[in-house]
Amino acid sequence: MSTSQFAVYQLKKKPELRNLLFRTYEELAKDQIPVQIENYEQVYLGTMKPGETPEQIKKELGKKQPHNYKGHAVSTSDVLILNDKGVMTTYYVNKDTFIEISDFMKVTSSEGGGLTKDTVGYEIAGKDGTWEVIDYLLVEGKNYFLMEHEQYGKDVAYVVLDQKGNVLVDGTYNGFDDVVKQKILDSLYPPVQEQAEGYKPKLDNWQKYMENGEYLRSAEITEEANYNMIDGLKNNAAPKDKKNRPKESVLAKLNEKKEEIARRSGQKDMQQVMEEDIERKKR
Fold it and tell me: Is the pTM of this model over 0.90?
């Protein structure tokens, strides 16, 4: 690996684990209590200089804790995991020393077996032969294992498993390269499909009605040109069948009505009566 990193693990804040806090490795061994990753949580993940020791790391963290450090100062019962250019070593923080432990990172796979940095003869579902761990990577407190085929070696593409034994990358010849790392990050944080700015899902009429609120609905109804358009926008255009009709004259319609009434009653139009009266006076 091109980047060396380290992680700090501390006991989870659970009542049943209080009796393990700040106890020395010798005390745990006397009571036959194993140091297991399921009792711990990662409180910090950072980069380290190649060849840096756990003593140096503890000293540096004691001087100034990084802003994203989530635990207490490194002390007895903590665990430090150092990944120095792909070589991973796990240390139990004792009172005055650091004790290397090998089984801390053991996890249960989906096949019911175990995966550690020393795992060999591992069977992957759907694949022939057996596989062995040749490298592993720690990302966001989770372990990812690079598996090599034991019978064909580098002639067969590597497979990357997550800490549950699931196949994360089915075929890579470059180990934990940038492409594989990106796939690991994508599995942790699936990309969210972005919607266009101002996008608003289409609503049915009843949804528009409920969304606009009582006051807005009342105001809109008083000015709406089309009552089936109660959608938060005032004065929507009238329905298409009325929109293009020519505007009719009210006065013309009134005159037509008067003429119709006159015809039905046998009376002459008022204008005709006035014209005849004028003619008589001229004579």
Answer: no
